[in-house]
Amino acid sequence: MKTKQERFTLFVERLAGAEAAGTHDEAFELIRETLDGVEDEFSGVASHPSAFQTDGRMYPPQSDNARKVPGHPGTIRYRSRAHNTIIGANGAIRIETTGFQKTVVLEKPGANGEGLGI
Predict the structure, then answer these.
(1) Is residue 54 pLDDT above 80, yes or no?
(2) pTM of the shown model
(3) Which end of the chain, N or C, is surrounded by fewer C-beta atoms within 10 Å?
């Protein structure tokens, strides 16, 4: 089993190396599949989304945490415990830390080669 930080690093590496998504929904699914795959392989914890606060497993963004990004039509931000996952209509993905000093962890263009522009 790997630590949460090791698993997060693997998730980001696998997501960065995956084929780019062409739409928001494709990117959302790519994130879900990639994170669930890493967690299934390395967390040692079965998936029980209702226990997300206590089971030690990382879960993908949830649609109930979706917020529009002002000034960027079609771009959605998903808030997680320590990260924001931002997905554009073109499938571009950005993952950044939350808090006072935001750090971009991943910047992945969509299939059209364009990023989020934020």
Answers:
(1) no
(2) 0.91
(3) N
